[in-house]
Amino acid sequence: MFTIIGGDGKEYGPVTLEQLRTWIGDGRANLESQAKRTDDEQWRRIGDFPEFSGAEEMPPPPAPHSLPETTGPITVDPKTYADDLIARASKLGVVDCLDRSWNLLKSDFWPIIGATLVLFVVLMAASAVPILGLLVSLLLTGVFYGGLFSYYLKKIRGQPGEFADIFSGFSLAFMPLMVATLVSQLLVTLGVLLLILPGIYLAVAYVFTYLLIMDKRMDFWSAMEVSRRVITSQWWRVFGLLLLGTLLCLLGLVGLIIGIFITIPIYVGGIVYAYEELCNPPPRK
Questions:
Q1: Which element (helix H / strand E) includes 5?
Q2: Mean pLDDT score of the chain, rounded to an integer?
Q3: Partners of 35 in the β-ladder
Q4: Cα–Cα distance for residue pair 59/99, rounded to 1 Å
Q5: Residue 60, in any domain of the structure
Q6: How many CB atoms lie within 10 A of CB 276?
Q7: At what angle are helices 220-232 and 197-205 packed, to 10 degrees?
Q8: Is 234 within 8 Å of 92 (Cβ atoms)?
Q9: What mean pLDDT comes out for the span 168-195?
Q10: 76 and 15 in contact (C-beta within 8 Å)?
């Protein structure tokens, strides 16, 4: 199994030797691309691995973001992928995530407020129509939230986040997000009906699912399992973040209704900052 650094500087994998050969053949990577085995910490040129030592030189590295844009949903080994992230991640700072989100909001106040408000207005309008609201809740929640999370992720990374990004889930990963919405909600509901606590556990553990689908282009099950495994390693911290964020939103609603328009973006940003901390930790030294 190999992990590769794409043209956008992000890590992709672990993937099999056959999948890596396919990416090279498709021009999504070449012999100069950096990769490592899952059991090794050293990055090296793909051409330096014995498996590729006799291969022809391939086209230049893909342009930024071309790897996730041109490939379909990626299937990974959730345990191997998550174990690597868990080993590299530091302890999640609950208050720090919300504090950084507040600073992000202050730095780009009106665009973030406006994008978040529009998305929630669309969701509330859809919910007001009985049948449409049910369909949106069961099938499209992840499609909407995937776009919103992607918008915040770009802002956090200093990339240009456009208003249209909040609906990017419909164009970039519609099916994986839709299936993930349906399956995760069914599993959470089943957990609640059985003993309640399993449902609460899963509701928290699947929080990063939509982000993994949008950011890593994972298939729905890989994203659900990686999210569950990564969050389980720090479940109480993530639960604390969600609880504190919910209380913050309630204070914004009770104290002054207009305050909810500030507290919701802080809450959403806090989740995305937590994702960055746990699912994009720095490489091992």
A1: strand 2-5
A2: 86
A3: 4, 44
A4: 43
A5: yes
A6: 16
A7: 110
A8: yes
A9: 94
A10: yes
Q: Per-residue confidence at 30, pLDDT binned at 50, 70, 90?
A: confident
Asked if residues 202 and 228 have their Cβ atoms less than 8 Å apart, the reply is yes
Distance CA 91, CA 226 (A): 17
* Confidence (pTM): 0.76
Structure tokens at 244: 């504190």
**Alpha helix segments (H runs only) across 108-162:** 109-127, 130-135, 141-156
Q: Residue 224's domain spans which residues?
A: 84-279
* 194 shares a domain with 67: no
Query: 202 in a domain, yes or no?
Result: yes
123 assigned to some structural domain: yes
> 54 exposed, middle or buried (CB, 10 Å; 0-12, 13-18, 19+)?
exposed
Mean pLDDT along residues 21-27: 70
pLDDT tens figures, 42-83: 788 888 888 776 554 444 444 434 344 445 788 899 999 999
pLDDT for res 69:
46
Q: Residue 16 to residues 23, 37, 49, 134, 198: CA-CA distances in angstroms?
A: 11, 10, 14, 40, 33
Question: Rounded to whole angstroms, how far apart are CA atoms 212 and 239?
Answer: 18
Indicate if 132 and 261 belong to the same structural domain: yes
Contact 86, 229 (CB under 8 A): yes
Query: Per the domain annotation, does 219 fall within a domain?
Result: yes
CA–CA dist 101, 93 (Å, integer): 12
- Amino acid identity at 256: L
Q: Are 203 and 188 in contact (CB under 8 A)?
A: yes
* Same-domain status, 41 and 98: no
Pairing of strands 34-37, 44-45: antiparallel
pLDDT tens sequence across 193-207: 988 899 999 999 999
All residues at 6 or more sequence positions from 166 whose CB lies less than 8 Å from its CB, including other chains: 115, 118, 119, 144, 147, 148, 151
Go through the chain and tell me how many residues it has. Answer: 285
